[in-house]
Amino acid sequence: MSLSASMLGALRCFDVAARHCNFTRAAEALHITPGAVSQTIRQLETQLSVALFVRLPRGLALTDAGRRLHAVVSDHLAGLSEAVARISATPNTLRVTCSPSFAMMWLMPRMARFHRDHPDIEIKLVAEFQRVDRHEMLASGTDCAIRYDPIDYDEIHAVTLMPETLIPVASPQLVAAHAPLKGRALLAACTLLHDAAPWDGATPDIEWQTWLARVFPDWESGHAGGAHQEFNLSMLSLMAARNHQGIAMGRRALVAEDLQSGSLVDVSAGAAVTSPGRYVLLTISDADARVAAFSIWLAAECARFLQTGQ
Question: What's the pTM?
Answer without folding.
Answer: 0.73
